[in-house]
Amino acid sequence: MMKNIATPEKRNIVLNGKRTTLQLETYCWQNAAKISRETNQTIDELCNIIWRHKAAMAMAPAMRLFLL
């Protein structure tokens, strides 16, 4: 059976030196992985860049906006 790409998926990441869980849809994780490969960064490194520039917004919505 094929996995629904809109299904929320939790993953552990390290933000600002602390381990945390981020829940995003499968297609968001797939796109984050693609951008990470293309920029020679880990997903954690990409998340930390977004974290530093996200202003007063939660991490999951900030990540979705970045991926748009």
List keywords for this structure.
68 residues, 3 helices, alpha+beta, two-stranded antiparallel ribbon, 24% strand
Describe the structure concisely for a colleague.
This protein has 68 residues and is α+β, with helices and mostly antiparallel strands. It contains 3 helices and 2 strands.
Write the layout of secondary structure elements.
Blueprint: E1 8-15, E2 18-25, H1 26-38, H2 43-53, H3 59-67
Antiparallel strand pairs: 1-2
Distance between the termini: 28 Å
Radius of gyration: 12 Å
Tell me the number of strands.
Answer: 2
**What order do the helices and strands follow?**
EEHHH
Mean pLDDT: 94
The assigned structural class equals alpha+beta
In what order do the strands lie side by side in the largest sheet? Answer: 1-2
Helix content: 40-55%
* Shape estimate: globular
**How many helical elements?**
3
Question: Beta fraction of the residues?
Answer: 15-25%
Give a quick account of the main beta sheet: strands, pairing sense, barrel closure. 2 strands, antiparallel
Low-confidence stretches: none
What does this structure look like?
This protein is of the alpha+beta class. The chain has helices at 26-38, 43-53, 59-67; strands at 8-15, 18-25. Strands 1-2 form a two-stranded antiparallel sheet. The relative contact order is 0.19. The mean pLDDT is 94.
